[in-house]
Design goal:
The structure is a single chain. The chain is an all-alpha fold. Helix content is 72%, strand content 0%. The chain has eleven helices and no strands. Helix 9 runs antiparallel to helix 10.
């Protein structure tokens, strides 16, 4: 009898889920880690290239110091991203917003410093092209770092506040950078070879930046009014009309500034509107496509949740519309035909377009899917 009682009280082994073993790393987490490490090393390489060009180009000491400081943004961003991706304390990779933010802002300003130096004849065509390629690559990888922060469960990547300014900034910057890359690609496609852009600080600070702020504000409004779509069809349509109207206005202002800044290198407040009927029609048609066709698509399919395939279609519709939007607006401003010609710069332009698609489609879908 005693033996039976002893057998009855023998402790049974704990089930696997109750042990103190760390959770296994998922396949998605592994891919995220690999992507983060690759992006981190990419940012580090870009930072080194920008730093070397700042040291080698024959520019004045003050401009050189500024370029050296700005080039460190990609180095710091790359190191922070590498630290997040290789953190041994957590099985789940958690990417913060800092790597992308620290890399992108200095890169934008570095572009202005480098291209204005070329305009003044301080640097050669060859040096300016290398700097342009480094900056465009930094745009892509810096935005990838932002998108990675949106796919993780870190507290810094997903603020719990209702307005979530950090997340709105992240989403807006991804939209802005992808659109700017498309604009640069369309501006270069007819050239014989890739060429340095122009630069006007007045157009950049006084027109392009306000347009960017409108687009970031639009992302914030989208988050604040997210529950409107669940109340009624009318409030859902009202929200969509408000946010998409702000999208069109923000794009028009930002792209007007970038055209005068990157293409003309002139003060946009002093440049006249030359006008082109075909371009104006294309511009208006693209705006209506964004507002009505893409808007209707989002209105119909938003009720089914954030399905990745539907988000991809929505972003592809945006790409189609924004290409026509950029081409039409430039035609209306310049007075030239909206018909695009293909020049010798096409191979380089394809790479820029690929980066833009990576940002606008995969990057935007990644953060929208988990937001």
């Amino acid at each position: 009898m005693a033996k039976l009682i002893q057998k009855k009280h023998v402790a049974e082994p704990l089930p696997v889920e109750m042990t103190a073993l760390e959770p296994p790393v998922s396949k998605e987490n592994g891919l995220l880690k690999i992507g983060s490490i690759v992006s981190a090393f990419g940012l580090l390489i870009i930072g080194v290239v920008m730093l070397v060009m700042a040291l080698l180009t024959p520019i004045e000491a003050g401009r050189r110091i500024v370029e050296i400081v700005l080039s460190s943004g990609n180095l710091v961003g790359g190191m922070l991203l590498l630290r997040d991706a290789t953190n041994k304390k957590h099985a789940q990779v958690s990417i913060s917003l800092w790597p992308g933010e620290i890399a992108l802002l200095p890169t934008f300003i570095y572009l202005g410093i480098a291209m204005s130096a070329f305009q003044l004849g301080l640097t050669s065509y060859h040096d300016a092209v290398i700097q342009l390629i480094a900056v465009l690559s930094g745009f892509v990888l810096g935005t990838v770092a932002l998108a990675l922060s949106g796919t993780t469960r870190g507290k810094s990547a997903h603020p719990k506040r209702k307005i979530a300014p950090a997340a709105s900034l992240r989403d807006g910057v991804i939209l802005i950078v992808g659109t700017i890359l498309l604009a640069i690609a369309l501006g270069q496609i007819s050239g014989a070879a890739l060429k340095p852009t122009q630069w006007s600080w007045i157009s950049f600070l006084g027109i392009t930046i306000p347009g960017m702020l409108l687009l970031i504000a639009r992302e914030g409004i989208k988050r604040v009014t997210e529950n409107w779509g669940r109340r009624s069809e009318f409030t859902s349509m009202l929200r969509l009309l408000a946010t998409d109207s702000l999208l069109i206005v923000g794009l028009a202002v930002m792209l007007y500034g970038s055209y005068n800044n990157l293409t003309l290198g002139m003060n946009g407040y002093a440049v006249g509107f030359k006008g082109n009927t075909d371009g104006l029609i294309l511009w208006v048609a693209a705006a209506l496509f964004l507002l009505l066709v893409r808007g209707f698509y989002k209105l119909v399919f938003s009720q089914g949740g954030r399905v990745a395939s539907r988000l991809v279609v929505s972003q592809l519709l945006y790409v189609v519309a924004i290409v026509a939007f950029i081409d039409g607006e430039r035609s209306a401003l310049s007075g030239k035909s909206p018909l695009l010609s293909i020049g010798g710069a096409a191979p380089a332009v394809i790479l820029i377009l690929s980066g833009a698609l990576l940002v606008l489609v995969l990057g935007r879908v990644a953060v929208q899917k988990v937001s």
